[in-house]
Write a structure and sequence with these properties.
With 294 residues, this protein is an alpha+beta fold. The chain is 41% helix and 22% strand. The chain has 12 helices and 9 strands.
Length: 294
Amino acid sequence: MSDTDAVTGPAADAVTGPAAAPATGPAADPGHVTYVYAIGRAGTPLDEAARRLVGPAESPLRTVGADGLAALVSSLPADAYGADGMRARMEDLAELEALARTHHATVEAAYASTTVLPMRLATVYLDDTRVVEMLRERSGDLGALLSSLEGQVELGVKVYADPSAATARSPGPDVAAADPAAGPGRAYLQRRRTQRRDRRDIYRAAGAVAAQVPERLAGLVRARVAHRPQQGELASGAGENIANDAYLVPAEQVREFRRALAGLSDAAPGVRVEITGPWVPYSFATPPRSGGTT
């Protein structure tokens, strides 16, 4: 299915669930498009989640189903959420943040009731028919992904190197005090050499700590994804993020996961390990692209 198919097409022909709109309802209205949040198994848990949730502009949610699967969707104005409107929205940071918060909150609330696959932010189809076609085309892959995520959560592990923290704990030698004959220039050069050496040592230590993480977690996790280290405003706290991994973990193993990493960086000044989550397993649940405007 092409991106063009995703923004032109006929009315809906398969909508499921007690909150579903008929083919003549909003999903078939050319003034609206179908925004998809997540995909799960067709049935009561997802239908009930849809009844409890609302999307952007307080739009009611419903389910659209095919081949035993169901998409959690809402109908949104085409002028604001169609291809052109969505492009403008994605370029406005305030609008983008608001949409992202709503999207992720909806996915998390649905995942609390049943296993779902989060769709990429701003996945929009012309109407429900295009969603049905996507579900039918990808039913095998989507069903396998859902099975792999049953009872699983995502935990993140980030390793940071912070030379300033190590320097604060253990200041370098005072060259002038140790050797009164040393001039200020020599003392400065010595301090710079010490700082460079300490920085190299901290980054080596951080690399060694990062290498130990998967070793300690062996047998506790189902899968691992190595993400790009975070930089700038995305990085939390002091130091440089040198490792940013996501792990797929059985929900009942979260406590054991945390225990396995306890004290990992205690003997490495300037190295910090941060565990985040549990989250909806976004890193392991993104369906393949198939139609839709993202």
